[in-house]
Structures are given as C-alpha cells and as structure tokens.
Amino acid sequence: MTSSASGRPLRADALRNRAKVLAAAEEVFAVQGTSASTEEVARKAGVGIGTVFRHFPTKESLLEAVLVALLERLAAEAEGLRSADDAGEAFFGFFTRVVAQAATKRAVTEALAEAGVDARAATGRTGTGLQAALGVLLERAQEAGAVRADVGPAEVMALLAGMSYAAGRAGAHEDVLTFAFDGLRPRP
Amino acid sequence: MTSSASGRPLRADALRNRAKVLAAAEEVFAVQGTSASTEEVARKAGVGIGTVFRHFPTKESLLEAVLVALLERLAAEAEGLRSADDAGEAFFGFFTRVVAQAATKRAVTEALAEAGVDARAATGRTGTGLQAALGVLLERAQEAGAVRADVGPAEVMALLAGMSYAAGRAGAHEDVLTFAFDGLRPRP
Amino acid sequence: MTSSASGRPLRADALRNRAKVLAAAEEVFAVQGTSASTEEVARKAGVGIGTVFRHFPTKESLLEAVLVALLERLAAEAEGLRSADDAGEAFFGFFTRVVAQAATKRAVTEALAEAGVDARAATGRTGTGLQAALGVLLERAQEAGAVRADVGPAEVMALLAGMSYAAGRAGAHEDVLTFAFDGLRPRP
Amino acid sequence: MTSSASGRPLRADALRNRAKVLAAAEEVFAVQGTSASTEEVARKAGVGIGTVFRHFPTKESLLEAVLVALLERLAAEAEGLRSADDAGEAFFGFFTRVVAQAATKRAVTEALAEAGVDARAATGRTGTGLQAALGVLLERAQEAGAVRADVGPAEVMALLAGMSYAAGRAGAHEDVLTFAFDGLRPRP
DNA sequence: CATGAATGAGTGTTCATTCAT
DNA sequence: TATGAATGAACACTCATTCAT
Q1: Average of per-residue pLDDT values in chain B
Q2: Where are the domains of chain B?
Q3: For residue A37, what pLDDT band results from cuts at 50, 70 and 90?
Q4: Are D2 and D19 in contact (CB under 8 A)?
Q5: D117 at the C interface (CB within 8 A)?
Q6: How far, in Å, are B16, B27, B68, B168 from residue B105 at the CA level?
Q7: Fold for domain B67-184?
Q8: What pLDDT sits at residue B4?
Q9: The domain B1-57 is classified under which CATH number: 2.40.160.40, 3.40.630.30, 1.10.10.60, 1.10.10.10?
Q10: A172 to chain B: which residues are within 8 Å by CB?
Q11: Both ends of chain C: CA-CA distance in Å?
C-alpha cells in the first residue's frame, strides 16, 4: 500500500498525494455514491486528474482502495477490542457501531459485502482481516456465553452486511438490531 | 398499469410491447445492475429504442416500473397466503422465498429497500401494498404464537431488505436466516 | 390548395382536417418557433400525427403551407386597398401594419423573406401574389407623388422584410420606420 | 476570451484549439445555420467532440461565443474609423460593409439582432461595444451634416440588423441601401 | 512526477417519418 | 381515411482514460 506498482517506494510528496486522493475519494463517494466522477475526486483532493490516475490506474482500483481502507479501519477497531473486559459488550457494541456508521456511509455496506465475498473466496484478501478480527470477538463472546455456539464468522459477516444495508435505507436499524441480536443469543 | 398516461387504454399490440419491454428490463437490470443501458433493454426486448421511450419516457420511470412490478408480484403472493392453515409457516416461508429470489435478482433487494422508504413516508405508493400484505401474515403469525408480539411490519420489511441484500452478496443466506428467524420467535 | 396531390378533390371532412392542421401549425410555429415538433401541431389540431403527414407529407411542406397562407392573406389585404382614396396612405399604412404583425409573429418575416426570394427567382410562386398586389399600391402611390419614382417592387419587398425582422428583434420599429419611409419619399 | 472560466490562463495548445473550434463554428454555423451539429463543428476543427465541450460547455455557449467574436470584430473596425477624415463616408461605408458581410454570413445578422437586444437591456454585454463605437461614428457624421440629427444609435442598430437580414435573403441590398441611407440623410 | 487538455465511445432522449390496425 | 405505435438516425452531453507539456 505504501509503494508503487513497480515496487519502488514512493517519494514523500507522492505518498502525501496518494493519501489526499484516497481521503477525497472516500468523502466524494460517500456523499455522491460510487457513480461520482473521478474528476470530482481530483478537485476535492486539490490535485490534477492525471495524479489520481497515476496512483489508481482505473476508477475501479480507486474504489477498491477506498473499500480496503474502510475495512482496515474497522479491522483495527475490532482488534483493539480483543481483550476487552466484557466480551459480549465488545462484540455487540462493535456490531452496533459498524451499522451506525453504515447508516450514513453507503461505502461501508459495500465494503462489508465485498469483504464477505472475498473471505468466502478464501483469497486471503483484505476482507479476511476484518473477518479474522471479528472472529476473535465472536469466539470470546461465545466463550462468555453471550452468543450461541452454532454461529460462525461468515454468518456474522453476512448479518453485519445485511443490517448495514437496512440501516442505510429504511432507517429502522435500532429496533431491527434488537431482534437480530436476540437471534444470535443463546436460547434460554 | 394497463393504460397509457392519457387514460385511454392501449392497443393490444402496444400492450404486448410494453410487457416485452418491462420483462426485458427486469432481466437486464437483474443481470447487469441498474446502470445497464436503455439500448440494451430495447435490444433484449426486440424493439426499437424509440419504443422503450414511448412507454417509459425516462430511464428512471422504466426503473421504477420494474420495481413496482416486482413488488406487486410479491404483494400478490403474500395476499394469497392470507388464509393459509399454518400461519407461522406462511410467514417464514414467504420471507424465505423472497430472500431466495433476491439472491439472484438484485432488483428485488432494491425494490424492497425502496418499498421500505415509501412505506415510511406514508405515501400511498406501491410499496405499501407489500407492507400491508406482509403485515397481515405477520399478525396472523403472532396470533398463532409463531412470532413475538413486539415486532412491527416496518421492522420486518427492514429485516427482509437486509437479508435479501446479504443473500445477493455473501451467499450465506440459509444459515443466516436461521438466526434472524430465531430473533423473531418468541423467547421461550 | 383544395385538392390532394393525386388531383382528386378532398372529402369534406378531410378538407376540414387540413384546415385544422394548418391553423394549429400557424399558431404553434408562431409561439414556439419553427423547431416546434409536428406532434405538437397534431395535438393542438386535435388529430393524430398520421393525419398531419397525410396532408403535408414532410414537415417542410407544412411549414411552407403556413407561409403561403400568411402571404395569401397579406396579398388579399393589399388587393383590397387597390382603389383606396389616398394612395400614399394606403401604401404606407399597409407597410406599417405588416411590420406591426411581424413584431409578434416571427413567421411573417420568414414568409416575406421567402416571398422575396421566390419573386426574384421568377418562379411564379405564391410570393409573387403579394409582390404584385404591393406593386399596384406602389405604382399608385408613385403616381400620387407620395413615393419617389425610382423605387421598384423588389426593393419594397426587401425593405419590408428587413423592417419586419428588425421589428421582431430590436423593437425600435416605429422610429425606424419613420426614417425608412423618408427614404422612400421623393426628395423635396 | 483568452482564459478559462477558472481564471487561469490557458496553455498555448489549448488556446490554439479554442481558436480552431471557434473558427470552425463560425464557418459551420454560417453555412448550415445554427442548427448545425456540434459534431460537425468538431470535425471541421479537426478535434474530438470532447474538446469542443471542454471549451464551450454547452452548444448555446459556443453559439454565443461565435456571435461575440463577430461583434467584437465589427466593433474594432468601427473604432478604427473614429478619426477618419470624411465622417459621412466612414459611417455609411461601415454600414455598407457590415451589410455586405451579412449577405453571406447569416451569423452576422443574428449577432446584430442580439446586440440590439443586449444594448436595449442596458446590460454591460458585448453588444454594447458595437453600439457605442457605432454611436461615435454616428455623432461625427451628424456633426459633419451627413446624417440628420434626430437619429439615435438604437435606431441605427435596428436599421443595420434589418438591412443585414434583407441582404441575406432577398439579395437586393445595394439598391435598398440607397433608399435607407437617403432616409438617414438630412432633408434638403 | 504532476498537470490538465484531448479523446471518443457511450448515454439518455427527441422527432420526422412509416405503416399496421 | 384516420390513428398512433414503432422506428432509428441524430443530437447534446459525460467521463474514464491517455499523453504531450
């Protein structure tokens, strides 16, 4: 992520530009959807259109980089909860915060969906990072008796993606999450 | 749906063409997403591009017609289950079939999401048709003790949309539905 | 004008339709310019689009028919002044009224321009009707000493078209006509 | 005119292309009328269609640029005559040359008509440039006794537009101008 | 390396014209 | 004969991508 395709490390200013473009893309795509133009991203980033294409040779690669960055941030957050005191609270709290984010950032939902696909495909792609971290939270919550034992990480990812999608559209997320969480808890 | 905007009924051949276009649009948008071109729809329908625009004056109106048609079909199916013997089976079975459909037809998910929004907005739009029919199934399932009492139609719609989305992407639908359904069942 | 291209006289209702279309076209083109659609004309006339094309096989032919009708009306008015008492007043008054009409009806200007071209081309087309009638008014005004002798009908037509155009755009017609008329009067 | 909308000066090659497009547009619109297609302009200019739209974001803006360029050229010519020896000759000669140009370039007439409208609207738009320059020629011609005193610049503009229109259609310009000019001269 | 001008295939949409009903 | 549905070429305009500066 910090070096060009040629393998050579990027110069400091090039790296800075890459970051600026990525940040701009994240915001532009969040607000206008993924159909926003690359030109718009360049404008927001304060660089020329050519610079955008130098760092991300196609629009698709730019899109993917945005999703990857999002997933990495989520994975980092999940990893930070790895040794939280209350394992149930850690799991459900993380789940809730992700869904809340998705309610405003459409890209989050797309990232989750793609992460699920990637993880399934066992390609070792970035999505796996989140799924692995989430898997740890899940396992600890199961050991603590907060989550039923017959749930796997893939199912949690799918549920996360689905709830995030629903949150972005219908807006009924809070209430719905209640039921979804009850479905994950051990039957009394 | 069977008459032009002017109120006059369409000629038999015009009606046939309208249906052909709608069917083609449904398929094209399902496969290629809503960014598929109107030309593609015309080609698939075997009509000229002008014919598509005669029946649906903008691409947006064509898109909406597709969604409306989908929702109407779902609503009709739900209504047909209104007096099924096993109310729980009727409710959960319908839910399952919708999600299964969504796994292959991306448009179904979009229709559900939009239906949720419409219903929320309390407009007399089409989405309400499905939500109302679904509401009946829900109520009967609740009376039969198959679904917990504190769930409303809006929450069910949101859950339906979310699970449909997840089904289309992650593919883990069957297992995930198990948990979601458990969340809807009365706590023992 | 009262028979179809095949030479056979039109049925009464067909004739009525032709007139309706012509009237509608005149109004539509006056308001929206000649780029108005044929469909619009049909709508205004209360007939199907096919009927418009049956009577006027191309849009151009419809346009020309409108111009011809306008010119015929002007020619008729000019002919009515053929034996007016004050020949100068007849000539200048007619000129003034045409320009006033043109200020609101753009088609009048176009008709005059085309009439001028036609007359020049000596094709014996309709434009000549107006030019001939105007020629009579001119001659009588010259005999009465109200217009200088070295002016011909073609020049008057050109001046009429030019002033009509100016009237439609700049709006300064009244004042400008004063000078144009002075230019036509005999030098004292 | 020599810088983009963003205020930054254009690169040399961009400037060259802009000029090529403008020149091509001028010719294409002169020959085929303003309904000529933008593609045609691009083809004539030897650039891609995208280049045309980069410099002139809508067809209307291209059209306006053509008219503005024409008016500026005319205004410059008029200003060059500001201190000519024979003020009457300067005024009438300029008038004559404009009309002669209009006989072949339809766009000239449209430019004049629009200039008249602009000037009337008292906006600081380009049309005023020509009217002002023409006003100087007019005043000097009036002081020299070559033009009657009760004529204003607006009337001259209207007459200029009208005569230009007539010249483009009927072709009788020379003779007609004689009478129009006599109308502007002081009554003996 | 950064820039932004140039490119041109592709899009939604219109409209004169044809022809089956 | 009248109708209006069907047609498809044409249009203005967009945008991802390339490349000379």
Answers
A1: 86
A2: 1-57, 67-184
A3: very high
A4: no
A5: yes
A6: 23, 8, 14, 8
A7: Tetracycline Repressor; domain 2 (1.10.357)
A8: 45
A9: 1.10.10.60
A10: 116, 154-155, 157-158
A11: 47
Return d(Cα A75, Cα A130) in angstroms, integer.
Answer: 4
Q: How far is A116 from chain B (nearest CA, A)?
A: 5
Spatial distance from the CA of B51 to the C1' of F5 (Å)? 8
Whole-angstrom distance, CA of residue D184 vs CA of residue C47: 51
Q: What is the mean pLDDT of residues A104-131?
A: 71
CATH classification number, A8-57, choose in 1.10.10.10, 3.40.190.10, 3.40.1190.20, 1.10.10.60: 1.10.10.60
Closest protein residue to F7 using CA and C1' atoms? Answer: B48
In this prediction, what percent of chain B has a pLDDT beyond 70?
85
Tell me the nearest-neighbour CA distance from C4 into chain D, angstroms.
Answer: 31
Q: Going residue by residue through chain C (188 aa), what tens digit of pLDDT does each one get? A: 444 444 556 677 888 999 999 999 999 998 888 999 999 999 999 999 999 999 999 999 999 999 999 999 999 999 999 999 999 999 999 999 999 988 888 888 888 887 776 655 544 455 568 989 999 999 999 999 999 999 999 899 999 999 999 988 765 556 889 899 999 998 76
What is the rounded end-to-end Cα distance, in angstroms, of chain B? 46
Comparing CB atoms, the residue among A154, A172, A184 nearest residue B154 is A172
Show the low-confidence residues of chain D (pLDDT under 50). 1-6, 122-124
* Residue C187: per-residue pLDDT: 75
Q: Given this model, what pLDDT does residue B170 score?
A: 60
Whole-number pLDDT of residue B27: 94
Q: For position A80, what pLDDT does the model report?
A: 95
Do B161 and A169 make contact, defined as CB atoms within 8 angstroms? Answer: yes
**Among the listed ranges A54-58, B150-154, D172-176, which one has the minimum average pLDDT value?**
D172-176
Nearest to B169 among A113, A166, A182 (CB): A113
Q: Tokens 């719609």 appear where?
A: B157
D180 contacts in C (CB within 8 Å)?
159, 179-180, 183
Q: Tell me what percent of chain C is helix, strand and coil, each rounded to the nearest 5.
A: 75, 0, 25
Amino acid (one-letter) located at C131: Q
Write the DSSP assignment of B79-142 as a string of letters: HHTTT-S-HHHHHHHHHHHHHHHHHH-HHHHHHHHHHHHHHHTT-S-THHHHHHHHHHHHHHHH
Are D20 and D63 in contact by the 8 Å Cβ rule? The answer is no
Position C168: which residue type? G
- Alpha-carbon distance B176 to nearest alpha carbon in chain A (angstroms): 6
Cβ burial A11-22 (10 Å sphere, 16+ → b, else e): eeeeeebbebbb
Half-sphere exposure of B154 (CA within 13 A, CB side): 15
pLDDT at D10: 63
Tokens of D119: 């000037």
Of the candidates A8, D143, D3, the residue with the CA atom closest to the CA atom of residue D151: D143
Length of chain A: 188
Q: Is residue B70's pLDDT more than 80? A: yes
Burial letters for A80-118: b for 16+ Cβ neighbours within 10 Å, e otherwise?
ebeeeeebbebbbebbeebbbbbbebbbbbbbbbbbbbb
Buried b (16+ CB within 10 A) or exposed e, C3-30: eeeeeeeeeeeeeebbebbbebbbbbbb
Residue C116: name the closest of C81, C77, C165 by CA.
Answer: C165
Give the Cα separation of A29 and A47 in Å (integer).
17
Specify the CATH number for C12-57; select among 3.40.50.2300, 3.40.930.10, 1.10.10.60, 1.10.472.20: 1.10.10.60
Query: What is the reported pLDDT for D13?
Result: 83
